[in-house]
Design goal:
18 strands, disulfide bond, 14-stranded mixed beta sheet, serine-type carboxypeptidase activity, 27% helix, alpha/beta, two-stranded antiparallel sheet, hydrolase
Length: 474
């Protein structure tokens, strides 16, 4: 997520048991043959392991690779990154577009059941879920000084990871390569893409077949993103005309980093009004630490359309997963306390009991990350001007990184509009709106989605994802 100081980890501590702890192992020894909670044959081949990106420091990045359920030898390879900084990409695997949906356990102390996800992005692509930087998720370093990092080091490590990963999996080298992610990955992806392009000039081997990237609700430019929140709140009916106009007047339309005392007071007033909202989706309840289930019977008088707001196909309530505890409900998961997930059995062997990482958190504050590369707009200009395709998409009910800011910066690129603002459809229903620009840049909104778009709108997300990979407009 873009703001780790304000979010509560929606996955509590997990202990991972891997029989694939050796780095640089051959792919077959990294094959995942079973997952707890899932009965049946995996829909495609899964691999997991570590790639060493710094031998001297013992810095190792963890990946989980899901081969395509379609044609893995031809389908694109997509590297997925969650944000934070400090959040594991298992977020995307578990809650967004991984091969499984997770059914909440009915009994405390038991594991969730896994069901096949009909809208998994692995239906149409190979996908690598990468924990980055070191210190996040299952990735680690033997030199703890590496946990103090920033944009440049992270992008270099991720580039090194890709080069080394394709040495382990050379059969995928000819496949088109795309980068994808959300939230603070709006920083990770353009900086990584630049490293890839610079690697071409430097003769880095193997040569990656890089084609483009897609970013959802991505952090991009502090000023534009910061200034977008107040207009978004007004447009969504969250603050009154009077509060908006007074704030706009006192701040002269500049809300971010404005040190005028009167402006600061108005911004604080807006913040107070919005304080009870779920910033990741203004339609969803905001959980403040209570473990009580939401009352599902008191809304029976509401029209069905109101009761359906924010609903997804996922079996677990959307934001309860983020702001409350996940599984097992009601107690933290500790080593030796209850069964844990994930436990990965590789090569048919029994999972080892010694963990590579002492504890696992969805999002950690153990790393000290410095965003030191500034605005990403110059990165996007350089990349798109070289012909790399970019899809910039936004869930339109996200208050954390509002679509208003993303729409503003994509427009500020100054590219000619080649596909004027219009709705896009799924099942003959408007799924959002899009605007296409010259140089293969597209801005897309997803109607009714929050910060983590595939979590809210899995069917619509798979649709635009496949269209983008295929080089088609929505």
């Amino acid at each position: 997520m873009a703001n780790t100081n304000t979010m509560v980890y929606f996955l509590v501590l997990l202990q991972i048991s891997l029989s694939i702890v050796l780095t640089q192992s051959a792919p077959e020894s990294s094959l995942v043959t079973q997952l707890p909670g899932f009965n049946g044959t995996l829909p495609s081949k899964h691999y997991a392991g570590y790639v060493t990106v710094d031998q001297n420091h013992g810095r190792n990045l963890f990946y989980y690779f899901v081969a395509s359920e379609g044609n893995p030898s031809k389908d694109p390879v997509v590297l997925w990154l969650n944000g934070g900084p400090g959040c594991s990409s298992f977020d995307g695997f578990v809650y967004e577009h991984g091969p499984f949906n997770f059914e909440k356990p009915k009994t405390k102390g038991t594991l969730p059941k896994l069901h096949l996800n009909p809208y998994s992005w692995s239906k149409v692509s190979n996908i690598i879920y990468l924990d980055s930087p070191a210190g996040v998720g299952y990735s680690y370093s033997k030199n703890k000084s590496d946990y103090k990092t920033g944009d440049l080091r992270t992008s270099i490590d991720s580039h090194t990871f890709l080069l080394e990963w394709f040495k382990l999996y050379p059969e995928f080298l000819a496949n088109p390569l795309f980068l994808a992610g959300e939230s603070f990955a709006g920083i990770y992806i353009p900086t990584l893409a630049q490293q890839i392009v610079q690697g071409f000039k430097a003769g880095a081997k193997p040569k990656l077949n890089f084609k483009g990237y897609l970013i959802g609700n991505g952090v991009t430019d502090d000023i534009i993103d910061g200034n977008a929140i107040v207009p978004f709140a007004h447009g969504m009916g969250l603050i009154s005309d009077q509060i908006f106009e007074e704030t706009k007047s006192q701040c002269n339309g500049k809300y971010y980093g404005n040190h005028n005392l009167t402006c600061l007071k108005m911004v604080l007033k807006v913040d107070k009004v919005l304080g009870g909202l779920n910033e990741y989706d203004i339609l969803e309840p905001c959980y403040h630490g209570s473990e009580k289930e939401v009352n599902t019977t008191s809304d029976n008088r509401l029209p069905l359309s109101f009761r359906k707001l924010g609903e997804t196909d996922k079996p677990m309530p959307v934001r309860k997963r983020m702001f409350g505890r996940a599984w097992p409900l009601g107690q933290p998961v500790k080593s030796g306390n209850v069964p844990t997930w994930p436990q990965l059995s590789a090569g048919g062997s029994v999972p080892c009991t010694k963990s590579v990482v002492s504890k696992w958190e969805l999002c950690t504050d153990n790393i000290k990350y410095k965003h030191n590369e500034g605005s990403m707009i110059p990165f996007h200009k350089k990349l798109t001007s070289k012909g790399y395709r970019a899809l910039i998409f936004s869930g339109d009910h996200d208050l954390c990184v509002p679509y208003t800011g993303t729409q503003a910066w994509t427009s500020s690129m100054g590219y000619k509009i080649v596909d004027e603002w219009r709705p896009w459809l799924v099942d003959d229903q408007i799924a959002g709106f899009t605007q296409g620009y010259d140089k293969n840049l597209t801005f897309l909104t997803i109607k009714g989605a929050g910060h983590t778009v595939p979590e809210y709108k899995p069917k619509e997300s798979l649709y635009f994802y496949k269209r983008f990979l295929d080089g088609l407009s929505v």
